[in-house]
Design brief:
With 329 residues, the protein is α/β, with parallel strands linked by helices. It contains 11 helices and 10 strands. It is 47% helix and 18% strand. Strands 1, 2, 3, 4, 5, 6, 7, 8, 9 and 10 form a 10-stranded mixed sheet that branches. Helix 4 packs parallel to helix 11 and helix 6 crosses helix 11. The longest helix has 33 residues.
Length: 329
């Protein structure tokens, strides 16, 4: 009799647990179907006016309109977006906190010691926005007009040529260039892209690898000389400028990409909804024009494609940092 009573109690407990689980699943399903019911916060780890911020502001008005809720841009600059990444990694997995980030998403773990998250496990990839090709630019006083001439000069003046680096992405891109070419240019660190550009324009440094958008007006006015594009394909903005790959350094490839992420655990239907609506926004003619005007070559895809790409970028930059002897600080 006692055993039968215990069995009934166990059955009742199991039934109650099952009912709670079904209720929770039903609630989660209802919340997912109703998403979004309030404003969405899109965090940007860089100051207003930078490329990542500009991209977020290009996409957010129409994306918010298509989703039916306002998207609020929340700038949290610091440590190449590390601070914003930490906050998003710890945010509730409900789809109301998003992150617009750059290549820093894959680079930070290789250059910063104080990383409190796992780049692959703590973030859900949402959508790749695109890539800005970088340019290898030199001060006009430097007697080089192409990559081969730059490499020859760097070998003769070992360690004497100075390059500007304003972020982890430009730093590792140039160190990868150094290692692949077997040369040694010396890094001068700047606290932002603006000061780095001023350093190049003034002749304080002789070389810089930087995104095509901000430097483009200075290339057009001949204040700096562009000698190559860093992506494997030539840029539509400078179609006659050869790539590093075709100019004497085979297989060199770097650029700054931009993508959207969410905290890990956000329900798959929400991720798919944001992905679909973002692609819809990016197909709008005015948005296409704005994105192209920033020098961005759009490349939206699936969350899975972005996840695989980030994983490959993590490996690439970890290898570059190791070969360059860069230790996380």
């Amino acid at each position: 009799m006692e055993e039968t009573g215990m069995s009934k109690l166990k059955w009742a407990a199991a039934a109650a647990a099952g009912a709670c689980l079904m209720t929770a699943m039903g609630l989660a399903r209802a919340q997912t179907q109703a998403y979004p019911t309030k404003a969405i916060r899109m965090m940007v780890g860089f100051a207003p006016g930078g490329a990542t911020d500009v991209i977020a502001r290009i996409l957010s008005p129409k994306l918010g309109s298509y989703l039916g809720q306002q998207i609020i841009i929340d700038n949290r600059p610091g440590a190449d977006a590390l601070l914003a990444m930490e906050q998003v990694a710890k945010a509730p997995a409900d789809g109301y906190t998003l992150l617009m980030n750059s290549s820093s998403q894959a680079i930070n773990v290789s250059v910063y010691k104080r990383v409190t998250f796992d780049t692959l496990k703590d973030f859900a990839p949402v959508i790749n926005v695109g890539e800005i090709p970088s340019l290898v630019v030199v001060h006009p006083a430097l007697p080089v007009k192409g990559i081969r001439e730059l490499l020859q000069l760097a070998r003769v003046r070992k360690g004497e040529l100075l390059y500007a680096a304003s972020a982890s992405s430009t730093w590792l891109a140039t160190e990868m260039f150094n290692r692949m070419a077997g040369i040694q240019m010396t890094r001068v660190a700047y606290k932002g892209a603006g000061p780095a550009m001023i350093g190049l324009l003034s002749g304080e440094v002789q070389c810089m690898i930087t995104g095509i958008g901000p430097i483009f007006p200075h290339v057009q006015s001949n204040k700096v000389r562009a000698i190559a594009v860093t992506t494997l394909k030539r840029s539509t903005m400078l179609p006659n400028l050869p790539t590093v790959h075709e100019s004497g350094l085979p297989n060199y490839e770097s650029g700054v990409w931009y993508a959207m992420f969410a905290p890990a655990g956000v329900p798959r239907p929400i991720i798919e909804r944001i992905n679909a609506e973002t692609r819809r926004v990016m197909n709008e003619p005015d948005v296409k024009a704005s994105i192209a005007g920033q020098g961005i070559e759009a490349n939206p895809g699936t969350p899975e494609e972005l996840g695989k790409y980030v994983a490959s970028e993590l490996q690439k930059y970890a290898r570059v940092a190791q070969e360059a002897g860069i230790k996380p600080e």
